[in-house]
């Protein structure tokens, strides 16, 4: 059964356009040294530089819970621009990557990732549910990869200190899932954040990585923070496994622009 979220999200958002300063420049890419063994628990697993756009959503709790492995429960964001969100769709454009030895291990790649914030006891992390990417990426590290065609169009403009940006993402999976995002907005000044995050696989939670991240976050839309610098927004999700998640009750909580996202990865030395 196909489902598309086209209601109010497909209409230009009517809140007044806020004045915005031009975003800080993205740090230049450079050859990276091998990841610091102290980057996180486990052994170094590499580095990547990306540009991301994140759509944070609130879906019925039972829908999010059904995506998690046994023993894990949904842990919605408690603070920040995505407060209350329990599912994220991450549109990611990888620009470069290196392996744990510092040698190139990948170039440009575009993908869409579905992740659920979750908890098991005192342990918190993001459960990677689906990754839609080029078939050459295979099932990927988290073993949840779905072969898909992913296209991206991005453009920007600036006058004096005011910058505008537009993005259009289209994801078509071989198994029938479809994702789409079209957004236009006035750029703001990103806040630099350096979190450490645990990511684990919905297929096997023993498959996990810890990321030490340096990122810039520009919340172009945040319902909790009453921020809206979008001039138009359309998000759609339908088909295949997505039809079991998106049933018309989902709500967009936030749209985050990450003009830079650099991560050092570490992974367990072995899976028990």
What does this structure look like?
The chain is mainly β and 272 residues long. It has one domain: Beta Barrel (Acetoacetate decarboxylase-like). It is 2% helix and 53% strand. It is built from 1 helix and 15 strands, in the order E-H-E-E-E-E-E-E-E-E-E-E-E-E-E-E. The protein has one helix at 61-65, and strands at 43-58, 73-74, 87-98, 104-106, 109-120, 123-133, 145-159, 162-173, 178-186, 191-193, 196-201, 208-222, 227-228, 230-238, 251-267. A 7-stranded mixed barrel has the order 1-3-5-6-11-12-15. A hairpin with a 2-residue loop joins strand 7 (145-159) and strand 8. Keywords: Signal. Residues 1-30 form the signal peptide.
- SS element count, helices: 1
The major pleated sheet works out as:
7 strands, mixed, barrel
Indicate the CATH topology.
Acetoacetate decarboxylase-like
User: Oligomeric status of the shown chains?
Assistant: single chain
Q: Give the overall average pLDDT.
A: 87
- Beta percentage is over 45%
Q: How many domains, as an integer?
A: 1
Strand order in the sheet with the most strands: 1-3-5-6-11-12-15
| CATH architecture designation | Beta Barrel
Order of H and E elements: EHEEEEEEEEEEEEEE
> CATH class, anyone?
Mainly Beta
């Amino acid at each position: 059964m196909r489902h598309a979220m086209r209601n109010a999200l497909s209409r230009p958002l009517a809140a007044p356009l806020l004045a915005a300063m031009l975003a800080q420049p993205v740090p230049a890419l450079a050859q990276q040294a091998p990841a610091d063994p102290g980057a996180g628990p486990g052994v170094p697993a590499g580095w990547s530089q990306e540009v991301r756009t994140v759509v944070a959503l609130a879906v019925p709790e039972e829908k999010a819970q059904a995506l998690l492995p046994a023993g894990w429960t949904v842990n919605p964001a408690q603070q920040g621009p995505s407060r209350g969100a329990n599912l994220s769709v991450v549109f990611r454009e990888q620009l470069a990557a290196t392996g744990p030895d510092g040698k190139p291990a990948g170039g440009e790649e575009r993908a869409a990732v579905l992740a659920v914030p979750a908890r098991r006891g005192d342990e918190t992390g993001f459960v990677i549910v689906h990754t839609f990417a080029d078939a050459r990426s295979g099932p990927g590290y988290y073993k949840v990869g779905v072969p898909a065609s992913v296209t991206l169009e991005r453009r920007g403009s600036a006058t004096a200190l005011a910058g505008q940006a537009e993005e259009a993402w289209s994801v078509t999976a071989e198994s029938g899932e479809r994702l789409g995002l079209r957004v236009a907005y006035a750029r703001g000044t990103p806040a630099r954040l350096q979190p450490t995050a645990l990511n684990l696989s919905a297929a096997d939670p023993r498959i996990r990585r810890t990321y030490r991240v340096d990122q810039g976050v520009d919340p172009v839309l945040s319902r909790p923070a009453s921020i809206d610098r979008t001039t138009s927004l359309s998000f759609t999700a339908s088909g295949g496994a997505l039809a079991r998640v998106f049933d018309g009750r989902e709500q967009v909580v936030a749209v985050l622009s990450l003009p830079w996202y650099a991560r050092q990865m570490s992974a367990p030395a072995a899976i028990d």
